[in-house]
Queue: 3 jobs
Job 1
Amino acid sequence: MNKQKYWLPVLGIFVALIGCITINTPIKAADTIHENYVQKIKAKKELVMGTSPDFPPYEFVKNIHGKSTVVGLDVEVGQEIASDLGVKLVVERMDFDSLLVALETGKVDMVISGMNNTPQRAKSVSFSKNYYQSGQDLLIRQADIHRYHNYRSLSNRTIGAQTGSIQYSLVKQQAKKAKLKGMDKDNDLILALQTHKIDALAVDTATAKAFIQNTNGLIRIPSGFKTSSAGSAVAFPKGANSLVQVANQSITKIRKNDLINKVYLPKVSKYMTNHKSKKDRQKANSMWAYKDFFLAGIGYTLMISALSVCLGLLLGIFLSLMRLSKNSWAKKIAGAYIEFVRGTPLMVQLLFIYFGLGIVVNIPALLSGIIAVSLNSAAYVAEVIRSGINSINVGQKEAARSLGMSRQLTMRYVIFPQAIQNIWPALGNEFISLIKESSIVSVIGVKDLIYQSRLVQADTYRGVMPLVITMILYFIITFSLSRSMKYFERKMGHSND
């Protein structure tokens, strides 16, 4: 076998990827000073704010009249800046560790997510003045109140922190005798703390107060960390000086009038404790009250899966025919594509399409998810179809050609119909897997079933039940599809008897 069969096509793919990434360098050089950035915002009449809504009281999701709404201290700050600019505030939700990437690639205009202004972050983005200063605490279980007093008490124990946060860096740098456990969501870390997966959780003081107010069995203690952070600030694209100046004026007004303590935090507290009796809280936090969230998630999941199945199947057939063709270049290109896609994680492909290609063209999150899942599925479908075609006895092809049928007609009317019966179970498994794998789109803010379950977790402070409901819903979807595939499989088997 020629070892260099795929060398040139694979090299071409890598060159294209590097080319897309390096496009960002001249863009940054040309835009070191965005003197007209404010004018651009006013021209489109909206200011897009990126945030990770799992960080109460800074930002969290609330079920308001059956609609998931991001509320919190940071949203109020963002609204103040947008109001001073005379534009509408649009909130984009995504994971915390994706926020700065979204900012650098133009997906959002600013990031407000309880983000601390650190020298490392300031190398890639421009920060406003700090708008709020809070301390650092550790959340522990109430049963451990006499065991742990600060991070020094947690030697050889596990401390959790949100990936990409300042707390993650503080634990890593100062609590060197402790084990560090990072997760994307604070809600997952709270669940890990409650189920003894971690022994403490490092969070902002305001966030710690919010969680213990709404979660039974937890208590906060001083962290003992030394930090030089100036506090939470608004992040903007590097060099967006005109927009930073506008934000600083808004923050100066906020601090002068003490709006955070007098207006914003009291308003946020009402969202967090708007049910007086225990019965009211239980009713508001029941899973039935969030049925619209789960239904919306099912709708997005089914839509993404259906479109990805269709596109993946069409592209997979095309790729399999390329690999079976006599054209050497078609074989190499299809082979290189299949090997590259199967050799890289779907999450990396998704992030590259959404963020990497976003440097050249702004692809919406939903479309990015459909494209990524479709392209990934096509590589696996192509191999399933190719193996099915190769499984047909060569005598079938020879008999058809001896009757005067062309190669195309032979494939269409003789080989492919028989191959379908052989590959149907494998295709069914791929389609079922695709429904489950489509959940990866939640990391870029697509409102699928996983994303909606995260919202329910954040709003109810209940970690396990939303996951149970989500598992049941996924099982119903995949089981129904599996039964349907088996029905058609039996029908095809009966038609050949």
Note: The radius of gyration is 27 Å.
Job 2
Amino acid sequence: MLKRILLVDDEKEIMELLEDFLLVEGYEVYQASNAEQARKVLLQTDIDLLLLDIMMPGESGFSLCKSIRRESNIPILFLTALEKDTDIIRGLHIGADDYIVKSASPGEIVARIKALERRLVLSSSSLNSERENIVRFKNLAINKQTRVVSIGGQTLSLTAKEYELLSLLTEHPKQVFTYDQLLESIWGYEFGDAHTVRVYIAKLREKMMKLEHCHVQIITVWGIGYKLEETEHA
């Protein structure tokens, strides 16, 4: 959630008007009249969003935006009298999240801030969901939602059982699984022929070894079963 907003503009009346609207919406508002003051506020306070003018005394908003983007992904909205397409494109190109002309009403500006806030929340939720669906070990990644397996960025084509077997080993790296444990987890029966497991492990190893830069390997623990380990040369 965006809580603390920094207004950077040399026009005091505009800042005071915007502050009134933002305070009513529950935001904490900070003010700076130039780039130097803005940097001081950013060093002292955990700001969630910048509403930044372009034409200011001294350093421009474009320059300040560029320098901030080298260190931070904080949301930045340009608020400016410049309305040319070239100015808008430039502002977005150097890292602004939105571009608002000063002819917009305070209500519209607040609405744009809230729209950006909603996009950030949705993006964060989507990213977190995607991360939860991905299992990783070294340079092996398994997307459990799409069932796509990749090693070093290269896709590994697997059968259903091969996928289930590798997924289990990847979710518990370095843990030794016995033949019986693998049979029960993947094939659904407690006891069976260990040869079945050995055949599938052999197929998996063959496919993994064909990929360049494979930093994982399935290790045989003699007389017991298998585990997934990092390769010695990784």
Note: The domain at 134-230 is CATH 1.10.10.10 (Arc Repressor Mutant, subunit A).
Job 3
Amino acid sequence: MSFEPIERTNSYYNESLLSIDKKICNLLNQRKVVQGKNIFFPPDEVVSCFAEEYDLQEEYLQSIFTTMAMEASLKPMVVPVEFKKYVPVLKMYENNGVIYTVTFIRQYANASVLYLDTDWEEAKENSEDNYNPDLFELSINDIYDCRSEVGGGTTGHMSQNYIISPSLPDDVSGIELIFKEPGRPFKVNSTGFEFTIKLG
């Protein structure tokens, strides 16, 4: 994900704002350190209190906390180059009649590309029992950056691609892939569902 640079109406900057802006950046960094890889949002009632105390709009504050949760998705995405080989995996996880499968990994000089397939038996049309597939976030450990590239599917099947950098070793034995349903703000009614597929 990326954003176009903001088109500025003028280049003037009030230097008296510099110390304030520096404090804001310092606090953003402090918050990032405390929360780690988790994403935390103040409860709505807390945001309401903040808005009243500091004379700010609630929606404005909600948008700020939402933007803070997006930093990782704004990092430049690695573009895989120099294809090397396929690494067969064929590992799966089943939950409530839904099968999640990793069949293989594409190895490149600077990254790996992993594919997660989701398959389920579709119920009758307009049935409440129909499975509503999710796009998952992938994490491994602090060494690897995992970014979802694209996802999509058809009735009873969905596939999602991930770019992992640096590239995984050719021997992936013991590596654990942690797939997690995105939380708020990306999915308001998140159940927190996650599962692990161990390779090798």
Note: The domain at 83-198 is CATH 2.60.40.1640 (Immunoglobulin-like).
